[in-house]
Amino acid sequence: MTDTHPELRANLIAILRTIAPEVEPDELRDDRPLRQQVDLDSMDWLNFLIGISAALKVTIPEADYGRLATLGDLVAYVRAKLG
């Protein structure tokens, strides 16, 4: 997904960096759970998802939170929401 949607991936990482400024974008893997890579607690994760919703104008229902574990999951999900 990184090759196909680099701009969306970069936007998601920029949003993530508002919560975890120490994140090194080049070190993030699209196929590993993001919370483990960045060491986000549940409140940080929720704030990240809310930040995505606000910045990209997409609705992320709470029922979908469990499907969004990796950066790749998030890119695919947001891309589908944006059409």
Describe this protein's structure:
The protein is mostly helical and 83 residues long. It has one domain: ACP-like (Non-ribosomal Peptide Synthetase Peptidyl Carrier Protein, Chain A), CATH 1.10.1200.10. Helix content is 55%, strand content 0%. The chain has 4 helices and no strands. Helix 1 (6-19) packs across helix 3 (42-56). The longest helix is centred in the middle third of the chain and has 15 residues, at 42-56.
Supply the CATH architecture.
Answer: Orthogonal Bundle
Strand content: under 5%
Biggest β-sheet description: none
CATH-level-4 superfamily name: ACP-like
Helix content: 55-70%
Q: Would you list the SSEs in sequence order as H and E? A: HHHH
N-to-C terminal Cα separation, in Å?
Answer: 16 Å
**What ranges have pLDDT less than 50 throughout 5 or more consecutive residues?**
none
Number of helices: 4
The CATH topology is given as Non-ribosomal Peptide Synthetase Peptidyl Carrier Protein, Chain A
Number of β-strand runs: 0
Which tags fit this structure?
single chain; mainly alpha; Non-ribosomal Peptide Synthetase Peptidyl Carrier Protein, Chain A; 55% helix; 0% strand
